[in-house]
Write a structure and sequence with these properties.
Length: 157
């Protein structure tokens, strides 16, 4: 019997045995005041939808660029989905562009080669205020990433 699903929208999705699903969350330590809040939003949403807390793995990496490598190494480790959580804030140089593009392309490439969904939850913001807004100030994009993971798991079932 399936646990009741609590999606944030009117989707009529029911996931088979959500208590048996395993989800990995890979979190960038860079801007951890933002990424930890994104993780909390994702984790709480997953739990509300029947995922057992013990089945939510939290893996920390130094920065958003390293999300790609960690996610790549997790796609064959018996998870039903991987969520990449990071925060990249515009600075004075083009570093923002290079890292943002590489991370987005890297996660896209993983979705091409993977049999499980790799969800992009990387906030790319002009300033810290936007990051705060998107990690619980006005809304939490971590919650959206958890919903996306659940929908893609359903798609994969």
């Amino acid at each position: 019997m399936c646990a009741k699903q609590i999606f944030n929208n009117n989707s009529d999705l029911s996931i088979e045995n959500p208590n048996k699903l395993k989800i990995a969350c890979v979190i960038s330590d860079w801007h951890n005041e933002i990424t930890e809040k994104l993780f909390d939003g994702a984790k709480n949403t997953l739990i509300k939808n029947g995922i057992l807390e013990k089945n939510i793995a939290k893996i920390n990496v130094p920065g958003s660029f390293e999300l790609i490598f960690a996610c790549k190494n997790l796609i064959d480790k018996n998870f039903d989905a991987v969520i990449a959580i990071g925060c990249i804030i515009q600075g004075e140089t083009r570093h923002f562009e290079f890292v943002s593009n590489a991370v987005i392309d890297g996660i896209k490439d993983l979705n091409i080669i993977s049999d499980i969904p790799v969800i992009l939850c990387v906030s790319t913001d002009d300033n810290i205020n936007q990051s705060i807004d998107r990690s619980g100030g006005k809304y939490n994009k971590g919650e959206d990433s958890a919903i996306a993971a659940l929908k893609m798991i359903k798609f994969n079932q």
